[in-house]
Amino acid sequence: MPSLIKSPIKPRLGLVLLLLVVLATSACGFRLRGFIELPENLQPLYISSQGGANNLAATLARQLEQSGVVISQELAPSKLRLELKDFNSSQRQVVFGQREEFELSLAITATARNSEGEALFSEEVLQAYRQYSYNRDTDSLLTRDSLRSDLLRNMEGDLIRQLTLRIQALQQ
After folding, report:
1. Total-model pTM
2. Three-class DSSP category at 38
3. Among residues 106, 88, 111, 129, which one has the least CA distance to residue 170?
4. Would you say 128 and 106 are in contact if contact means Cβ atoms under 8 Å apart?
5. What confidence tens digit (pLDDT) does each residue in 38-52 have?
6. Tell me: the pLDDT tens digits for 66-90?
7. Angle between the 54-66 and 141-169 helix axes, to the nearest 10 degrees?
8. Which of 61, 75, 85, 147 could disulfide-link to 50, CB 3.0 to 4.6 Å?
C-alpha cells in the first residue's frame, strides 16, 4: 500500500549529492572550456593587432577578461605583450563537378614579449583548416554561404583556443 506521507529525505539526498558533485569537480581543478588563468607576474596583458587580426584580437581579449585576466589598454603598464599580425584567410576549390569541395584555411602570426621586450615566443604561425562540400544542383547559394560562414567562425574559435593554450604554456 503506497504511503500518503511524502518523505523529506529524498529531496535532501538529491541536494547532498549535487553538492558532493560540485565539491568534487572544484577540488580536482576542473575548469570550464576556454578558461585561462595567468599568474600575477604575467598580468596585465596588452594585445596589439594589425589589419585583419583586429576582430580576432577583440574576441580574444573579451574571452580572457571573462576568465579574469586583466587586459591593459596601454602598452606601458603591461607585463605581457601579445602581438597578432598577418591574419590570412584563403579558400581553394579541390574538387570540381556536380559535388564541389572547398578547403578553407586561416592563419595568424603571434609574438609574446615580456615587459622588457624580450620575446617569450616569436613569430609563431597558428593555423586552422576545414573542408566543406556542396552539390550545385540541390544546395542553394545561401546554404553554401551559411556553411562557409559557420566554418570560418569555428576556425576563428580554434585560433583563439590555440592562442590561449600558447599563452598558458608561458606560465610553466
Report:
1. 0.73
2. coil
3. 111
4. yes
5. 667 778 999 999 878
6. 888 899 999 888 899 999 999 999 9
7. 60
8. 85
The answer to whether the CB of 161 falls within 8 A of the CB of 34 is yes
Top pLDDT among 16 and 153 is at: 153
Alpha-helical (H) ranges within the chain are: 9-27, 54-66, 141-169
Residue 63, all three cell numbers: 574571452
Q: Bridge partners of 129? A: 105
**DSSP per-residue codes, 4-35:** SSPPTHHHHHHHHHHHHHHHHHHHTT---TT-
- Say which residues have a Cβ less than 8 Å from residue 49's Cβ, sequence separation at least 6: 56, 57, 83, 84, 85, 87
